[in-house]
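Each lists sequence, tokenised fold; shown next:
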Amino acid sequence: MRKKLAAACAALMIAVTVMGCAGKTPAASEDSNENEASVQEEEPEEEEPAALSEEEEQELYNLYIDLNNTMVGRLSSSLEKYFEYVDFQEEFTLLKGEDYFCYSLESTLDDLDRTDELVARKQEKSELDEAYTALSPVIRELIQALNEVQAYTDEDSFLEDDFAKGKELHAVVWKSCNEYEPLGTDFIEKLGTVASAQRAEDMEQMKEEGYEVTYALVSMISTAQEIQTAIYEQGIEDDSMMLQLDIEALRPLYEQYKEEVQTVLGYLANEEALSNEGYPTQSAYYVTFEDAVENSEKELDEIFRKVEEQEEPGGYGIVNVFTVDGSIAGFNNKVSAMIDDYNRIISY
């Protein structure tokens, strides 16, 4: 289950930038004459929820993107950490002594509340909306269970009840995790289809309206994700298989990415160009974004060198934005960091 879902969740996604939307207000849709109370004593008809405004439609799309990124990132990491210590089976069985833990996802529940609210107000729901509606209660239950596991293990409460609550929580995690697999995959696939169309539309709009910086940033991130996909489609699942990589098949994307990185770094050094497109030039996220951009290129350089020289990958240490070890995990980490920082910058 974990590998199948990880394949569907291979890439983080970038949110929609607010171009040409500032200051817009939804058009009035109510006619006062039609809203006068009837003089007849009848049960009042239940009013339909107000249609989403353009800004709310964009907010919903970006919430979907955030959820995708949580599923790929924090939720995936939490499940991996949990099943690193607990056997992946229905019966609660520890694998590493008596200690175990996972990561919490408290803020995600607030986002789910807002997403539920917006989806409920949509009068015509898309396939993506329906996929989210099916996923919502399951992922909520899973996240709530993981949050409880985190609190339970953080306080070492299992030492007091001989894992009684841990067994109860595992039953919920196991049930919701297996329900989550097909629903999560369906949601991400449908969002991927919508996101691809949205990105193409956004890119065309950027060109037409002269958003050169934004076009360069999104193009670079898109190419990075194409490289991730191309690596995965070669059957390379992790760094233990890295030396089997067909780097010649990747070389055109590699060369394109190196050019795009240099273009982006040039724009990041041009405060006037950033300001002209509405970017918050004082955002602290530029520092880590720039580090991730530069080091993602260095990771690819090292990956290509190691494959060419058939140099065995080193030890599997902790990957981060600031160090380069020439690994696929390292490249993926930098791409994820770029997307996270980009989404934060445009939401500043």
Remarks:
- DSSP finds eleven helices and no strands in the chain.
- Residues 164-209 form the longest helix (46 residues).
- The radius of gyration is 23 Å.
- The CA atoms of residues 28 and 53 lie 10 Å apart.
